[in-house]
Design brief:
Elements: H1 5-18, E1 20-35, E2 50-53, H2 57-66, E3 69-72, H3 78-84, E4 89-93, H4 94-99, E5 108-124, H5 125-129, H6 133-146
Parallel strand pairs: 2-3
Antiparallel strand pairs: 1-4, 1-5
């Protein structure tokens, strides 16, 4: 989506609204899942599972489609909610799950990669307007080569 029409439209809308040039996206990571109830081998295993989600409608809708019971909670409440059973599962990047030692309270880990997140790289009009055409072309080429999912 980022490389196609949707991504190009988003970049154009963003530039019109902010004068920021979206150069590329850098891959940050995928979200994986951990829970206290059972191993997740299929989407059916998520049925009824109380899952902590951020207050993000896309994530709420996704988990509802998976058959889970999404519970929007602020991040600060999440560790306690996991420990007390208010929620039975959650998702994060794998490195974060490991660094926060959630495996100590959530015995089941599943590589789902159901959400992927990116970090956009922007340049302002002020910067871009200082460049001549050949420099702008070189800047965009470098962004496309070094980033992932560049807007084209």
């Amino acid at each position: 989506m980022l490389e196609g029409e949707v991504g190009r439209d988003f970049a154009a809308q963003l530039q019109a609204a902010t004068n920021g040039h979206l150069l590329t996206y850098g891959f940050v990571g995928d979200r994986d899942f951990y829970n206290s109830r059972s191993p997740i081998a299929s989407v059916e295993d998520l049925a009824g599972l109380k899952v902590r989600v951020p207050k993000n409608q896309g994530m709420i809708d996704t988990y509802e489609e998976f058959g889970a019971a999404p519970i929007p909670l602020p991040w600060a409440d999440t560790p306690t909610a996991l420990q007390t059973g208010t929620v039975e599962g959650e998702d994060n990047g794998t490195s974060f799950i490991k660094s926060q030692k959630f495996y100590e309270i959530m015995p089941y880990f599943t590589v789902l990669e159901h959400f992927t997140y990116f970090s956009p790289l922007f340049a302002s009009d002020r910067v871009m307007n200082k460049l001549d055409e050949s420099q702008r072309v070189a800047e965009m080429r470098a962004a496309a080569e070094k980033g992932c999912y560049p807007p084209t």
